Amino acid sequence: MKPSPTTSNPEAAPALWLNGWYRYARALASPNFGPRPGGAPIDLIVIHSISLPPGQFGTGNVQRLFTNQLDWEEHAYFQGIRGLQVSAHFFIARTGQLWQFVSCNDRAWHAGESSYRGKSNCNDDSIGIELEGLEGDAFDPPQYETLAGLCAAILQQYPIAHIAGHEHIAPGRKQDPGPGFDWPLLQHSLALPDPYFPAAR
């Protein structure tokens, strides 16, 4: 019996990345992106948390927000973000399901006004990952499993030197993912030294 080419010949396996799109993510392209500045090294991963409405999970509203399809009249909370045009590269649902909205080669609109490792405008050279959750609350094991696998793949593809939360790149303005996020677990999963992570976490 002839062996399967995907198991006997690794070169025959589909590429893990294609033009900045990750093979194991469900692609849903967002119009909210732009080019990165020339020569900008993609050296930062930024971890966020989001749920729409806050504290409600599995609604599909995060996906609709990132693709400019959110029904602003559906919930009173949405009036406060009406017209907002944002995106992240990735979104990890409570189940661990992974979505991608913007190629990692492009600039997503997730960080806002920000500064980290001596650089401002963190959108220029970062990859944004949103976890479905409420800032300050805990996240689910399937999310950490997906996050660790995704970060490992990103580390292989891009010159990542830092992993931080939105709260670290926009202190005082943002508080996510918050104290419920398990930084030691992520660090242990990736086997990375302390300098990759914020000093206070």
Folded structure, characterized:
The protein is an alpha/beta fold. Helices cover 19% and strands 19% of the residues. It is built from 5 helices and 12 strands. It has a 6-stranded mixed beta sheet. Strands 1-2 form a two-stranded antiparallel ribbon. It has a two-stranded antiparallel ribbon with strand order 4-8. The longest helix is centred in the C-terminal third of the chain and has 17 residues, at 141-157. The chain is globular. Residues 1-8 have low confidence and may be disordered.
Summarize the structure.
With 201 residues, the chain is α/β, with parallel strands linked by helices. It is built from five helices and twelve strands.
Show the helix and strand layout.
Blueprint: H1 5-8, E1 17-18, E2 21-22, E3 26-27, E4 33-34, E5 44-50, H2 61-66, E6 90-92, E7 98-100, E8 107-108, E9 115-116, E10 119-120, E11 126-132, H3 141-157, E12 162-165, H4 166-169, H5 183-190
Parallel strand pairs: 3-7, 5-11, 5-12, 6-11
Antiparallel strand pairs: 1-2, 4-8, 6-7, 9-10
Helix pairs in contact: 3-5
Instruction: Please compute the radius of gyration using only Cα atoms.
Output: 17 Å
> How would a textbook summarize the main sheet?
6 strands, mixed
**Mean pLDDT across every amino acid position:** 94
What is the chain-wise order of helices and strands? HEEEEEHEEEEEEHEHH
Provide the spatial order of strands within the biggest beta sheet: 3-7-6-11-5-12
Enumerate how many helices there are, as a single number.
Answer: 5
| Strand runs, count | 12
CATH architecture name: 3-Layer(aba) Sandwich
Report the span from N to C terminus: 54 Å
CATH superfamily: Peptidoglycan recognition protein-like
**Overall form:** globular
- The chain-level structural class is alpha/beta
Could you say what the CATH topology is called?
A: Lysozyme-like
State the helicity in percent bands.
Answer: 10-25%
Number of domains: 1
Strand content: 15-25%
Oligomer classification: single chain
